[in-house]
């Protein structure tokens, strides 16, 4: 029983619209040919896909099951075409990198510098996004790789590799009584106003911080929220409150702020950085970029609580040999 892919696409559109007129308009065809095509499809299948008995078109029970499998088949067919075209064209036009701001303090700039030395003609587009939006970008193919904070929700088909792990420290005003403490406990901050990232920006870490405070005997009084680490540090410097931030915040060198270790903070309460990408159909430029990032990661991993994997990696600064590239095979554009 041969069924054309075009007929399946027509069925999916009609199933989404449940209206022959709107479906025909979406498909750019007249309504009678669409009705005839659906009838022929039902005849070939041997069962009805739609219930036309009422005033509205509705999917039959068999049609609902068929819709799910048809959508999956069409997606697989589209993926196959995309991958084949990419392989045939040797697509190496642009590499789009998503990143959170904290990735700029260390590994990302170093990786860009080393990678561009090997691929000087490849256009690189940097796209600053929160981790949640990077997960969406990876799923939709609008970014090739992301520097983000795990974990990711709905990350099917996405590879995730830890590259940095920072212990959290207390960020306090420099005139605070805690600023020079050598034995600061989390419970010492119980009466302080807290400045945190919005929960929606990093729900996992936000929940862990609240949980840690409760375990220390208090519920943090969050009086301010800010989306950028630099903004939080500026608010701390102005005396608006205290915060828990990764130790890499020291690289921002904001005057008026002291970063103080918390002696009783759980060792697994960390600020993690990872790279994420879709292995399926990954281009040579992306694979090489990942190799370079892996090779440099140990040199930029945090000194306390680092989770960067070091096995099977060359020493920091020594890059693995690049994948072979035949001259003239890559379709590239000059980076502006």
UniProtKB/TrEMBL annotation:
<keyword id="KW-0805">Transcription regulation</keyword>
<dbReference type="InterPro" id="IPR036390">
    <property type="entry name" value="WH_DNA-bd_sf"/>
</dbReference>
<feature type="transmembrane region" description="Helical">
    <location>
        <begin position="231"/>
        <end position="254"/>
    </location>
</feature>
<protein>
    <submittedName>
        <fullName>LysR family transcriptional regulator</fullName>
    </submittedName>
</protein>
<keyword id="KW-0238">DNA-binding</keyword>
<dbReference type="GO" id="GO:0003700">
    <property type="term" value="F:DNA-binding transcription factor activity"/>
</dbReference>
<dbReference type="Pfam" id="PF00126">
    <property type="entry name" value="HTH_1"/>
</dbReference>
<dbReference type="InterPro" id="IPR000847">
    <property type="entry name" value="LysR_HTH_N"/>
</dbReference>
<comment type="similarity">
    <text>Belongs to the LysR transcriptional regulatory family.</text>
</comment>
<dbReference type="GO" id="GO:0032993">
    <property type="term" value="C:protein-DNA complex"/>
</dbReference>
<feature type="compositionally biased region" description="Polar residues">
    <location>
        <begin position="326"/>
        <end position="336"/>
    </location>
</feature>
<keyword id="KW-0804">Transcription</keyword>
<keyword id="KW-1133">Transmembrane helix</keyword>
<dbReference type="InterPro" id="IPR036388">
    <property type="entry name" value="WH-like_DNA-bd_sf"/>
</dbReference>
<dbReference type="InterPro" id="IPR005119">
    <property type="entry name" value="LysR_subst-bd"/>
</dbReference>
<keyword id="KW-0472">Membrane</keyword>
<dbReference type="Pfam" id="PF03466">
    <property type="entry name" value="LysR_substrate"/>
</dbReference>
<dbReference type="GO" id="GO:0003677">
    <property type="term" value="F:DNA binding"/>
</dbReference>
<keyword id="KW-0812">Transmembrane</keyword>
<feature type="region of interest" description="Disordered">
    <location>
        <begin position="300"/>
        <end position="336"/>
    </location>
</feature>
<feature type="domain" description="HTH lysR-type">
    <location>
        <begin position="3"/>
        <end position="60"/>
    </location>
</feature>
């Amino acid at each position: 029983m041969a069924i054309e892919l075009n007929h399946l696409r027509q069925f999916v559109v009609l199933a989404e619209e449940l209206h022959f007129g709107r479906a025909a308009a979406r498909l750019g065809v007249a309504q009678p040919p669409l009705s005839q095509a659906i009838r022929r499809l039902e005849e070939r299948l041997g069962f009805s896909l739609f219930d036309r008995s009422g005033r509205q078109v509705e999917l039959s029970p068999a049609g609902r099951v068929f819709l799910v499998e048809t959508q999956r088949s069409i997606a697989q067919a589209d993926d196959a075409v995309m991958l084949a075209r990419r392989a045939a064209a040797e697509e190496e036009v642009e590499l789009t990198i998503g990143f959170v701001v904290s990735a700029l303090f260390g590994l990302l700039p170093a990786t860009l510098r080393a990678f561009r030395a090997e691929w000087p003609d490849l256009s690189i587009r940097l796209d600053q996004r929160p981790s949640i939006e990077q997960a969406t970008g990876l799923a939709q193919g609008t970014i090739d790789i992301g520097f983000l904070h795990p974990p990711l929700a709905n990350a099917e088909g996405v590879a995730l590799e830890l590259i940095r792990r920072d212990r959290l420290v207390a960020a306090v005003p420099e005139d605070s009584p805690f600023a020079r403490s050598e034995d600061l406990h989390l419970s010492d901050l119980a009466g302080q106003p807290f400045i945190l990232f919005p929960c929606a920006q990093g729900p996992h870490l936000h929940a862990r911080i609240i949980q840690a405070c409760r375990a220390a005997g208090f519920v943090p009084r969050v009086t301010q929220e800010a989306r950028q680490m630099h903004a939080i540090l500026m608010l701390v410097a102005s005396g608006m409150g205290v915060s828990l931030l990764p130790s890499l915040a020291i690289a921002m060198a904001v005057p008026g702020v002291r970063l103080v270790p918390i002696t009783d903070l759980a060792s697994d309460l960390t600020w993690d950085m990872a790279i994420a990408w879709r292995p399926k159909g990954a281009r040579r430029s992306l694979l090489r970029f990942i190799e370079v990032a892996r090779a440099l990661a140990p040199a930029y991993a945090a000194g306390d609580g680092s989770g960067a994997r070091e096995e099977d990696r060359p020493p920091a600064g020594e890059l693995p040999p690049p994948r072979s590239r035949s001259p003239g095979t890559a379709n590239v554009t000059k980076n502006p």
